[in-house]
Amino acid sequence: PPPEWDWRKKGAVTKVKDQGMCGSCWAFSVTGNVEGQWFLKQGTLLSLSEQELLDCDKVDKGCMGGLPSNAYSAIKTLGGLETEDDYSYRGHLQTCSFNAEKARVYINDSVELSQNEQKLAAWLAEKGPISVAINAFGMQFYRHGISHPLRPLCSPWLIDHAVLLVGYGNRSATPFWAIKNSWGTDWGEEGYYYLYRGSGACGVNIMASSAVVN
Amino acid sequence: APAPKKPRAAGPQARELASPELLAPARFALEMYNRGRAAGTRAALRAVRGRVRRAGRGSLYSLKATLVEPPCNDPTVCQLPISKKTLLCSFEVLDELGKHMLLRRDCGPVDTKVTDDTNETFSSFLPLLNKDPLPQDFSVKMASIFKEFVTTYNRTYDTKEEARWRMSVFANNMVRAQKIQALDTGTARYGVTKFSDLTEEEFRTIYLNPLLQEEPGRKMRLAKSVSSL
Question: What is the ipTM of this complex?
């Protein structure tokens, strides 16, 4: 992979969103990935609806949590995603009001990505932002800088938060992943979290996936 | 309460106390533990021991208390066998001029091997940090930081009691953030965030996604790595 990459600089990432008091990180992680895939294949950056997933993905559990793999499947089954403007985020479960005629984005498939961070970086640089899930240890109090908790405290087996890898690089020789979070811009570095790259910190490499847009 | 032990050498400002001196902070900790519970469902204090560090106008009590939960009286919700549950709790109570604040609360059943969560892990990693004396104006500074937090993040609390409880959660969280900071090997800085007045449990319940580790999800095909495309 190139030594550094940042999809934000290439216009593939929408502004940081806020999931509010709702465990809907899985929906934000997936829409972020689909936004990136659609941009790379179609050349248009659209902000997509998480509320549609909350309301209409019946396999996942809305604010109680969900899985990206199920969400991709729901997007395929429903027939696409509406935009944020057409199906706005409310942060709580509502009756599904998806309108197929308003769907602006479609996916063809979804794939699981390698657990090798080098390969993930290579994939990201070529193919776009990646949906991942991590152990959120310490994130309640994270302000800025590259987070690298001791491994026993941030076990890869206790994954509890889904986010979006949008880039990677090095800061003063410390390798990092640039991670788009969904807790608003008044958290972290303007809504972004920086995590140590190369040691599987907090399980960042365990559950990487992406939608496929043909 | 068990007989007071001989004071141990634990630094110039820490000393083990006889039980009567621990009663006020222990009762306060118990009151906090039972907060929101109806009469008849509250835990009782069976034994307490601990030590104190004094600094300036404040005293920090580190307590080990045994609590007894009352037997379950509602047959529709009781788990069998119906018995009293004994808990071993660690409390840290700050007392400044007679005003108490609960900084830490870890409880677990006495008969389980692992009694608690990450706070215990921190304690085992950081025995020295726990013995550091508190700054003289600890609670004054904390109140000032909390006030700034409330303004910055537009927090409103329904009652004074709620505000006091949130401040004690906030203070506890600042200690937690400091410990996380000490255990981070990167360049990250931890401290006050918009989530600083939430307990760890509240934060997990509201913002995190336990399904990610609990459910296998739909199987997806493995992507080809870019080098082999």
Answer: 0.96
